[in-house]
Amino acid sequence: MLATDLHRTLASLILGLNAALVAGTSALAQTTPVVTEADIERARRETPTVTEQDIELARQKYALPSEAGHRSAPLNSPNLEALPQPATRIPVDLEALARGYAGQSDAMTQAQGLATGPGLFIFVSMTMPRATLQGLVDQAARAKATIVIRGFANGSLRDTVTQVQGLIGQQQVAIQIDPLAFDRFAISKVPSFVLVRDGTRPVACASGSCAPADSFLRSTGDVSLDYALEHMQRFAPGFSPAAELFLKRIRG
User: Fold this and answer.
1) Rounded Cα distance, 247 and 143, in Å
2) Best CATH choice for the domain 94-251 from the list 3.40.190, 3.40.30, 1.25.40, 3.30.420
3) 124 has pLDDT over 80
4) Tens-digit pLDDT profile for residues 34-58
């Protein structure tokens, strides 16, 4: 009797477990998506295909410029002909301005004419009052003296040329940019006037080449050129002939 009841109980338990397993499997089958062949085919149709032609077109469109392309690419160069032109028809000789930096003896002799006659130099700065500069330039033109400036106005060659052209106008005036000349003649203030004796030969010095100390006179002050020359005549009679030469030119 007991054995029969035990068998019945075990059979009931086995049937219950089987039913639970079948129910769990059915529920799992209902919640897990099934990927069919139709799904795979649809995904294949919707995914774009990249061909070799597509790759080549993209390479051409976004390629970096080659070295040949760099060489052939147009440069946006400014049109120099379109720049404003100065009012004066007498151009400033930029090469002559640049030569003012030379400190060699030959350059000094040729540019300043020390071996062919007395020299007269007016040391100025472009920061001086315009009226003072204009008066000195006008007298330098008549006396055939040389205007000497230390460097470029505002550090710009273009600004310097523009200011110089505005000062000289139609006149013929020798203008040099020569910072070493300020050292040659120990110029510490402007305007300064230097009268160099006829036949002077430059000698070696810390600035490259200098006029011997006994071969020139220097006068400093905010005065006219003729006043400075007259002062030199009174101060050093030995330089009177040279000073008189330039005074006659100023007076006409």
Assistant:
1) 7
2) 3.40.30
3) yes
4) 667 777 777 667 666 667 777 777 7
